[in-house]
Amino acid sequence: MSKKIVWDQIGERLYETGVDRGVVYPQVAGAYPAGEGWNGLTNVTLSPSGAEASPLYANNHKYLNLMSVEELGGSIEAYMFPDSFAACNGLANVVDGVRVGQQKRVPFGFTFRTLIGSDTEGTAHGYKITIVYGALASPSESANATVNDNPEAKTMSWEFSTTPVDMAGFDPVSSIEIDSTKVDAEKLKALEDALYGTDEKDAYLPLPNEVATLVGFVAS
User: Fold this and answer.
1) What is the pLDDT of residue 162?
2) Distance, CA of 27 to chain centre
3) How far is CA 166 from CA 93, 163, 173, 175, in A?
4) pLDDT tens digits for 50-93?
């Protein structure tokens, strides 16, 4: 039986806000075996590009549209970056406390969380975890200013591009989004135990096929 659409009912006025629980996972031989928390994370912007239509014409009419490949890039802003991100930022250790720049940049994966709020529960309603694979950071400028009567902490930023990875049942993916309000709680915990680690196991970034297994997806 059909049901008439009703807008903005109590408890259904949702919004998304904030960014926290950032983790970076440097890539090693195509895997992401170790994660480190990203303290001081202030902003993550995802910027898809491509997926543009190229029209073809025949018999004096539009015949069809060919779509270009969609790509994912973006930017990360923070007050500081984890030690493990140094290699992703083109830095290499000489000895403890001494780094040289202009080195090969290591690809990385990372995750971050945004909060889902509602009109009745606020930001306790839920959250989304976003996973990004195959990211490569571009060189970025670093501005240093004198301390003055209007002090501000230095903000760092990085632009990144991505290379998609394979996922059974889907086209190659650069990102996965997990909604805590819709995923089974036990399966979500299993995924978070992998992403954030436990008292017994270190954090790592599962590849898309393992993520699918953890949340209960079976490719047909």
Assistant:
1) 95
2) 14
3) 32, 10, 6, 11
4) 888 888 999 889 889 888 888 899 999 999 999 999 999 998 88
The pLDDT assigned to 149 comes to 77
- CA-closest candidate to residue 207, choices 161, 166, 160, 162: 166
Q: Are 24 and 86 in contact (CB under 8 A)?
A: no
**Positive or negative CA dihedral for 157, 101, 35, 188?**
positive
The DSSP line for 160-207 is EEE--EEETTEEEESEEEEETTTS-HHHHHHHHHHHH--SSS---B--
Distance CA 132, CA 207 (A): 10
Nearest to 24 by CA among 77, 83, 72, 74: 83
- Give the helix ranges, DSSP H, for the chain: 185-196, 208-215
Give the whole-angstrom CA distance, residue 191 versus residue 53. Answer: 36
Cα 25–chain centre separation: 11
Give 187's pLDDT tier (boundaries 50, 70, 90): very high
Does an H or E element contain 73, and which?
A: strand 70-78
Q: How far is CA 152 from the centre of its chain?
A: 27
Q: How far apart are CA 155 and CA 216, in angstroms?
A: 39
Res. 104: pLDDT tops 80: yes
Residue 185 to residue 126: CA distance in whole angstroms? 11
